[in-house]
Amino acid sequence: MGTAPASRDVTSYGMGLAAPLALFFLVFFVAPLLQLLWLSLHNDTAALHWGLGQYLHFLTDPFSLSVLGSTLLLGAEVTLVCLVLGFPIAWLYQRVGPRLQTIIILIVLLPLLTSVVVRTFAWIVILGRQGIINATLQSLGIIDTPLKLLYTQFGVVIALAQVQMPLMTLPLITALGRIDPNLDDASCSLGAGSWRTFFRIVLPLSLPGVIAGCTLTYAAAITAFITQSLIGGGQMLFMPMYLYQQASTLQNWPFASAISIIFLLAVLAVVSVFTTLGRMSRGYGGA
Amino acid sequence: MVDAVTHRYPSGALAVENINLDIKGGEIIALLGPSGCGKTTLLRIIAGFIAQSQGRIIIGDDIVDALPPNRRAVGIVFQNYALFPHLTVTENVAYGLAARGIDKATRQREAQRLLELVQLPSMAERLPRQLSGGQQQRVALARALAIKPSILLLDEPFAALDKNLRLDMQIEVKRLQRVSGITTLIVTHDQEEALSMADRVAVLSHGKLEQFGSPSDVYDRPQTLFVNTFVGSSNRMPGVVVSADRTAAKVRLDAGAEIVARPAGGALSEGGRVTVCIRPEHLQFVGDETGFAGVVGMSLPLGATVVHEVTTADGSGVKISQARIGETRALENGAAVRLAPLAPSLANAFPATL
User: CB distance from A201 to chain B under 8 Å?
Assistant: First the structure.
C-alpha cells in the first residue's frame, strides 16, 4: 500500500521532466514537418491550389526516381563498407589490453572531433587528379594517367564510409563487449574453429549492435549533404542536393517539400526494416 | 598427465611452478587452493587456452602441447556455464557434434540421449535463460560430454549454486562420472567439495603443488603447514622440539606441557622451533596434570558439536570441538581446564617458518 502512491509520483515526475523537450520538438520539429506536408500538397509554386501534382510529378519522372534510387543505393554501399571495415576494429578492441583500447577508441572517435567539411576536403586532397593516391601510384609506375577517383560513386562511398565510421564501430564495440568471452572458449573447446565460432556464436550475438550500427550509418550516409556534394561534385546528384536545388535555386518550394516527404518515407521504410530485424534478434542479447 | 609444468606471466611472475600430476584414467581429481593459487591457470593450460612456459601436457599417450583447444578433445564446464544464449538446449548440446561434421539426425539423437542422461529431456527446445541454475549446469555437462572428451574439466562448477542445489549437483556429477567413466578434473576453492567428490586432491598454494593425495591423506596426514591449516580447521600452537626421531617428536609447547607429535613435514632438529597443528576435534579435556592449561572463553553449540574457545597460558586462543553425546559437560565462562591431543598421530609438527 505504501509504495503505490510513491511509484505513481515517479512516473508523473518523468512526464513533467520530459515536457520541455516535448514542447521543443513540437515547435521546432513537428510544426515545420506539418508545414512541409501542407506545402507539398499544392500544385503551384505560390501554394494556392491544392493537389497531389508534386507527388505525381516526382513518381512519374524517371530522373527524380533515379536520384532517389542512387541515394538509397549509396546508403547501402556505405553501410556495407562500414560494416565490413568496422567489425574487425570492434572485434580487435575487445581482445587487446586497456592501453591499446584507449588508442583504438581515440582513432575511432577522432573523425567526430573534426568538422565534416575539413574531413571532406582532406578526401579531395587524397582522391584528386594530383592527389596522394594518384601521385603515389604514378611515382611507383603502376599507372600512367591519373585515375578518376574524385567525382565518382567510388570516391563518395569511400569518403562517406570514413566520415560515418564511428556510427558503426561504437554500437559494434558495445555489442561485442556484452558477449561473454567464455563463449569463445566454450565454442573452441567443443571443437569449433575460429570461423565456425564467428559465424555461429559471435555474429548472431552481435546482431543487435550490427543493426543499430547499420541504421545509424545508413541514415547518416544518405542525408550527408556536404560530403555527397563536395566529393560527388556536379555530376553525382543525390537527394539532399536535389532538394536543395529545388528549394533554393529554383524556388519551387512545393516540389521540394514533396521530395522531402518522399525521401523521409523512403528512409523510414528502410530504417523500420532494420528495426524489425533488430526486434527479431533482440532475444539473442540477454541471458 | 601434467609433467613438470611451469608457467610465467609475461611480467615474469610465476603463475604455476613445476607441477607434476599423474592422473589415472577414470579418476576424479580436485585442484584445491585459495583464489590466486594458479589452479585456474593450470586448468586453462590443460585445456590449451594458455601455452605453458615449460613442461608438457600428456593426455593418454599423446603430448598435446602443440594442439589448439579445439583439437584436444577436452570437455570444459565453465563456472558461469557459458551456454550459447541464442541456441536452444538441444542446439547447445549438439554444437560440438556439428563442429565435427556429424549429420543432423545423429546429432539430434545424441543430444536427446545426453539430455536423458542429465535428466532434462523435456527442456530440449528451451533457451538457456529459461532454465534454472542447476538445469543450466546439467546442459553444460551434457554439452561437454557430447564430444566424448578424454578428460572433463570443471571450473568451480558449483560456486554459483545455492547450498541445497550444490549437494544435488555434486551427487549428480559424481553419478555421471561413474556412468561415463571419464577422467575428471575439478577446480575448486571449497575444501568440502574437493574432499567429498575427488578420488585424489591436489592442494595448490602460490603456484606450487603442496600435496597430491587421497582426501584422507590430505586431511589426516598433511605434508605441509599450509595443507594442514587450509584443509579443515586447525589450531596452530608454537613450541620447541625436545627430542625427535623419524616417527615421533616430543615438543614443549609455549602454552605449557610437553606433548608427542608426528613430524609431518620431514625430520625435525632438536631445539628447533616448530608449529604444532591440532584439529579442534582432536583435542580432549583431561582431568589429570597432562596436557596444557587454559581458561574457557566462549562456547558455541553448533548442532552436532559444541565448540569451546580456550585461552592458553601464553595468551593464544585454541578451539576444541566436542561431539554432543548424551549430556555434554556444561562449561562456565572462565572455567579452568586442561587440554591434550587424543593421540600423538593427530598432532602434526612442522618446522616453524619465521
Answer: yes
Domains and CATH numbers, chain A: 63-285 (1.10.3720.10)
Residue A198 CA to its chain's centroid (Å): 25
Reading the block at residue A55, the C-alpha cell is 507527388
Chain A positions in Cβ-Cβ contact with residue B95 (cut-off 8 Å): 187, 190, 192, 200
DSSP A94-143: TTS-HHHHHHHHHHHHHHHHS-HHHHHHHHHHHHSTTSHHHHHHHHTTS-
CA angle B88, B91, B94 (to 5 degrees): 150
ipTM of the complex: 0.76
Element (H, E) at B259: strand B258-263
Q: What is the band of B7 on the pLDDT scale with cuts at 50, 70, 90? A: low
- Per DSSP bridges, beta strands B54-59 and B2-8 are antiparallel
B-interface mutation test, from A96, A179, A189, A198, most B Cβ less than 10 A away: A189
Domains of chain B (ranges; CATH) run 2-226 (3.40.50.300), 233-351 (2.40.50.140)
- Select from B11, B95, B125, B143 the residue whose CB has the most chain A CBs within 10 Å, as the one to mutate to test that interface: B95
Residues A175, A169: Cα–Cα separation, whole Å: 10
Identify any residues that bridge with B5 across adjacent strands, giving them in sequence order.
Answer: B19
Of A204, A214, A176, A219, give the one whose Cα is nearest residue A88: A176
Report the C-alpha gap between B2 and B59 in whole angstroms. 8
Quick one: which of B280, B191, B201, B261 has its CA closest to B230?
Answer: B191
SS3 B252: strand
Q: How confident is the model at residue B222 (pLDDT cuts 50, 70, 90)?
A: confident
> pLDDT class for A103, splitting at 50, 70, 90?
very high
Mean pLDDT in residue range A193-214: 89
What is the pLDDT at residue A62?
92
In this complex, the residue of A186, A192, A205 whose CB is nearest that of residue B78 is A186
pLDDT above 70 coverage of chain B, percent: 94
Instruction: Kindly list the residues from chain B whose CB atom is less than 8 angstroms away from the CB atom of residue A180.
Output: 80, 82
Q: What's the Rg (C-alpha) of chain A?
A: 24
For residue B54, name the pLDDT band (cuts at 50, 70, 90): confident
Collect all residues with Cβ–Cβ distance below 8 Å to B53 and sequence separation of at least 6: B6, B7, B8
For residues A3-29, give the mean pLDDT.
73
Q: Is A48 exposed, middle or buried (0-12, 13-18, 19+ CB in 10 A)?
A: exposed
Kindly determine whether residue A186 and residue B84, on different chains, have CB atoms separated by under 8 Å.
yes
Nearest to A84 by CA among A195, A193, A165: A165
Q: Is pTM, for the whole model, over 0.80? A: no
b (16+ CB within 10 A) / e for B120-141: beebbeebbeebebbbbbbbbb
The Cα B168–Cα B175 span in angstroms is 11
